[in-house]
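ARCHIVE CARD
Drawer: 12
Card no.: 0347
Subject: one protein chain, sequence and derived structure
Cross-reference: see card 0346
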Amino acid sequence: MYNPRVPAFEPVIGLEVHAELQTLSKMFCACPVVDSTSAEPNTNVCEVCTGMPGTLPVLNARAVEYAVRVALALGCRIAENSVFARKNYFYPDLPKGYQISQYELPLATAGTLTIHTDSGDKLIRIRRVHLEEDTGKLTHRQDASLVDYNRSGVPLLEIVSEPDLSSLEDVKAYATSLRTLLRYLGVTSGDMEKGVIRFEANVSVRPAGSSTLGTRTEIKNLNSFRSMLRALTWEVERQSALLEAGRQVRQETLGWDDAQGVTVPQRGKEEAHDYRYFPEPDLPPLQLEQGWIRAVESQLPELPEARRQRFLHFGLAPRTVDLLVAERPVADFFEAALAARPSSAAPLANWMTGEVFGLLNQHSVTIDAARLTPASLAELVGLLEMETINLPTAKGLLARLFEQGGSPAEIVRSQGLGQVSDSTAIDEFVAQVLRDSPEQVRQYLGGKPAIRQWLFGQVMRLAKGRANPSLVEQRLLAGLEALAESRPSL
């Protein structure tokens, strides 16, 4: 098998991203959009989405608005006139026997998306953005295949990139950045576990440094970042091994066997004419007025890239900013906390990406489901910066706020959690620990400096974790030095 550490070949990858739009009803009928992973099968269907003779599709206006939002955010050229077509193929999960999609005249073309990688920033070109309907859901059993039409006809947005992705890092950065953008725009939940976003990858390899495109294959229906990256890793290595052996890559459509970790042929790669596209006779051309497009544009939120650039101006590290911007509720939370304490951008960001993220993962909740508020986090950081409390107390207090809410300052007052910074009191704690630990003191004075950390912990324990750590360190060292000076010289 090809060794990817030897860069004899380089990949050329383009992604087709399919995102279910978060509308209330389906693309061409009034059936509600439901969670296809939990709803009772075939309960949200009608004559239109099951393709009964004599029925007519009616375009979902909200789906068009959502698609235009995405196209605008990607800087696309939006067509004032676009056309729906019938894409004819054998669809066991589309009872009409064809899919209503857009082909020759799509909704939007020629956009871009900036990605950030360790190798630097890169502009990925967007070839097209168009609307179509989703298919149903097939479940394969040993002796039969079952179909659920609840998802059939759900609005689907397809975003097709140019083959500008040249590494797995590029692919991951592009896919995650696009998902973040779609979620910021509020057009999809982005729930990968429910198949709301799915990927199809076009991949070829060529000699490193060459500008000639190789023969490409298409990997269908990748429904997670992990599956996509595993499939691409395998396929790049497979194609590279074929070329290294002097053989040719066959243009074909592939599936991904996640259990076996291999791509498997499904059919010879079809071209557009194989789908027998022709204009959908039951839908007139989609005409968009410039005034309406401008109105949609005026409602766009601040986009992830703009927010990222603004956060960088706070002096935060790029990696920290990427973590904060990845989810809009997290970025909103940070913004609100920063508004409450504008001088503490770095401490707030560090608490967010450290302790707060840790608690979110531990409790398996999103930030908007936690009892912690931006104001209470800002107040907590303020108490720490003013040395009203110390770091161990702050961490314990954060866990309490996360589960129960409340005011940090009020809890500190009522529970007596304020930091002890009185030198006299700390000297008493130090003296007691040194008296109660003669063996450890002897070891320290005998040349084992690591024992001091143990003694430090005993002082903090005696102070119930509320002592000023830097003052404890200072007074403990002074106490030990005094004992060393009082020892009889040998």
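Annotation on reverse: Residues 42 and 150 are 5 Å apart (CA to CA). The first strand starts at residue 9 and ends at 20.
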